[in-house]
Automatic annotation (TrEMBL):
InterPro entries: AAA+_ATPase, ABC_transporter-like_ATP-bd, ABC_transporter-like_CS, ABC_transpr_LolD-like, Cell_div_FtsE, P-loop_NTPase
Keyword ATP-binding assigned: yes
Organism of derivation: Anaerovirgula multivorans
Keywords attached to this entry: ATP-binding, Cell cycle, Cell division, Cell membrane, Membrane, Nucleotide-binding
Pfam entry (one): ABC_tran
Subunit structure, as described in the record: Homodimer. Forms a membrane-associated complex with FtsX.
Membrane topology note: Peripheral membrane protein
Reported function: Part of the ABC transporter FtsEX involved in cellular division.
A GO biological process held by the record: cell division
Protein's recorded name: Cell division ATP-binding protein FtsE
Domain of life: Bacteria
Sequence ranges assigned to domain ABC transporter in this UniProt record: 2-227
Amino acid sequence: MIQLKNVSKIYNKGIHALTNINLSIDKGEFLFLVGPSGAGKSTFIKLLLKEEEPTEGSIVVDHQDITKMSRRKIPYHRRNISVIFQDFRLLPNKTVYENIAFAMQVIEASSKDIRRQVPMVLGMVGLSDKAKQYPHELSGGERQRVSIARAIVNNPSILIADEPTGNLDPETAWEIMKVLKQINRRGTTVVMVTHAKDIVDTMQQRVIALEKGRIIRDEHRGAYGYED
Ligand SMILES: Nc1ncnc2c1ncn2[C@@H]1O[C@H](COP(=O)(O)OP(=O)(O)OP(=O)(O)O)[C@@H](O)[C@H]1O
Ligand SMILES: [Mg+2]
């Protein structure tokens, strides 16, 4: 469902962020993307989201070469591939319910669908009783669960997570991993960038390691593989 062929990204200052990446990710996979700071992990994600364009190569997502995608189709692409971040990025003046509903209003979902979907995803992340609270009234783990609920409310086929547990204590990080794994079991492809060695080593999923913009390792049931 995701295929990169000979993908390179050179930023305009001549920095080679990614070099000749060839990679295929199947529907329903759960994979970790690891590597030292500056290895190109966030660049990889930006290419998938079409926030940056590759200098060379093709990127196919759900049978569509997104490097050739017409402007008109970009909003649909961004609906299909959703993202969560280390710093949650919730809207501070909206309640938990409103934060999630907003993601549906943006794509002009009907209020009937919103009333049905928002409680459903809140239940999935275990926050049904927090709907009326504001982000500042939540713990870090709860905030991340809201951001996951928001990311999945429009049923994306791919969920990308850029260091989703980076701001959380180990126990809370594991709660987030359980939620991500549960979403993956329902069929969503999950790509997670992380520096959390223990999580990668314990979860036994596919691990792709980048170094200086190249894939140096791609293992099923892999390990983190280096010391930070
Ligand atoms: N917009 C940009 N313009 C120029 N160079 C950039 C830009 N964004 C990233 N880079 C460079 O590209 C390389 C890869 O950066 P990237 O952000 O993808 O690394 P990363 O693996 O996500 O690192 P980290 O673990 O620190 O988040 C780095 O050398 C970085 O300085
Ligand atoms: Mg990064």
